[in-house]
């Protein structure tokens, strides 16, 4: 896993705000996205020495001169190399090999756990123009961007619409196969695929220069929202928010819009999930009319029900 470290995506993908909270550092607000306080690195008395800019995701101490990105911050706090800081950050955010769970408020328990490892093959000959896609309102361009299409080759995904699933670093983990006729199951994934660890489309959403994200249930919902011009969208692949998924959202974004299905399950999930997130992050819930799923909405409607957050940068 060590060779999969990507400094750039860590610097961009992990919020300094999240890391400061992890180290229990309290700062005073000093303007929009600007914070000041005692420097946690040299631990001096200066109440104004340590400056943080959350919008730019950087910090600087005017007393000891420490400064830089989230990686520099963790390296300074832990007195370790940037490389070890990157590993540490992965542990804090649960984005890769190691995940951190807050089972006890005061005690951060870090445990090593197996996550889905990258696939060592890629399906070829995927047809991005299969009529099923048009039926679901997915354009060929979107299908190509997501690598989605009909696969006629042999194996588990034979004669299914295949949807590649990546981890936050963009490594291909698995394919999900959607049946295009009445064949059951409707969705087929490899047995060892750990869905609870992954947010579908996180590698694209996380790379956007956007601090807000739309959370939907399904693959097609996320493709339709993406197609409507809202690139920062992830799918739960269900109606449950698992702990590693929650962690990944908190680590990367400041505002969350929940856009789940307009059915009893989706409504209940919206309530449960928003209550769980609300204490840590700005959450907005959009309830769709009965029987409506986001992927059935025309692009204009998606744009209309998802106005940008007023306090976005
Ligand atoms: Zn300092």
Description:
With 313 residues, the chain is α+β, with helices and mostly antiparallel strands. The protein is globular, with a radius of gyration of 21 Å. The strands form four sheets. It has a five-stranded antiparallel beta sheet with strand order 1-2-3-4-5, with helices on one face. It has a four-stranded antiparallel beta sheet with strand order 8-9-10-11. The chain has helices at 7-13, 16-22, 70-78, 82-93, 131-135, 140-146, 202-205, 219-227, 243-252, 264-278, 299-305, and strands at 28-29, 34-37, 50-53, 58-61, 67-68, 98-101, 109-112, 149-151, 160-166, 172-179, 187-188, 212-216, 233-235, 255-258, 282-285. The protein contains eleven helices and 15 strands.
Based on the model shown, name its key terms:
alpha+beta; 313 residues; 15 strands; five-stranded antiparallel beta sheet; 11 helices; binds zinc ion; four-stranded antiparallel beta sheet
**Tally of alpha and pi helices:** 11
Bound molecules: zinc ion
Please tell me how large the radius of gyration is: 21 Å
Share of helix among residues? 25-40%
Sheet/helix structural class: alpha+beta
Biggest pleated sheet: 5 strands, antiparallel
Order of helices and strands: HHEEEEEHHEEHHEEEEHEHEHEHEH
Number of β-strand runs? 15
Quote the average pLDDT.
Answer: 86
What is the topology, as strand order, of the major beta sheet?
1-2-3-4-5
* Backbone shape: globular
Secondary-structure map:
Layout: H1 7-13, H2 16-22, E1 28-29, E2 34-37, E3 50-53, E4 58-61, E5 67-68, H3 70-78, H4 82-93, E6 98-101, E7 109-112, H5 131-135, H6 140-146, E8 149-151, E9 160-166, E10 172-179, E11 187-188, H7 202-205, E12 212-216, H8 219-227, E13 233-235, H9 243-252, E14 255-258, H10 264-278, E15 282-285, H11 299-305
Parallel strand pairs: 12-13, 12-14, 14-15
Antiparallel strand pairs: 1-2, 2-3, 3-4, 4-5, 6-7, 8-9, 9-10, 10-11
Bound molecules: zinc ion.
């Amino acid at each position: 896993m060590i060779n999969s470290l990507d400094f750039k995506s860590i610097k961009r993908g992990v919020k300094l705000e999240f890391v400061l909270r992890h180290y229990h550092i309290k700062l005073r607000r000093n303007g929009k996205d600007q914070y000041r306080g005692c420097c946690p690195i040299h631990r001096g008395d200066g109440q104004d020495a340590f400056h943080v800019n959350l919008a730019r995701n950087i910090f600087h101490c005017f007393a000891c001169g420490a400064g830089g990105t989230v990686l520099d911050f963790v390296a300074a706090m832990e007195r370790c190399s940037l490389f070890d800081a990157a590993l540490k950050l992965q542990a804090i955010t649960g984005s890769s090999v190691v995940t951190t769970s807050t089972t006890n408020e005061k005690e951060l328990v870090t445990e090593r756990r197996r996550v889905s490892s990258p696939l060592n093959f890629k399906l070829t000959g995927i047809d991005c123009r299969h009529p099923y896609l048009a039926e679901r309102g997915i354009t060929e361009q979107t299908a190509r961007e997501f690598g989605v299409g009909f696969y006629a080759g042999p194996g588990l995904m034979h004669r299914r619409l295949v949807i590649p699933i990546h981890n936050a670093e963009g490594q291909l983990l698995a394919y999900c196969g959607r049946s295009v006729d009445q064949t059951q199951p409707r969705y087929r994934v490899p047995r060892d695929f750990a869905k609870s660890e992954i947010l579908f489309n996180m590698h694209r959403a996380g790379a956007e220069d956007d601090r807000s994200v739309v959370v939907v249930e399904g693959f097609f919902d996320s493709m339709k929202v993406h197609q409507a011009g809202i690139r920062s969208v992830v799918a739960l692949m269900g109606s449950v928010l698992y702990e590693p998924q929650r962690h990944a959202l908190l680590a990367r974004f400041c505002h969350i819009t929940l856009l789940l299905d307009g059915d009893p399950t989706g409504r209940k999930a919206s309530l449960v999930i928003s209550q769980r997130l609300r204490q840590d992050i700005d959450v907005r819930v959009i309830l769709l009319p009965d029987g409506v799923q986001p992927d059935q909405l025309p692009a204009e409607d998606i744009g209309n029900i998802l106005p940008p957050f007023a306090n976005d940068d």
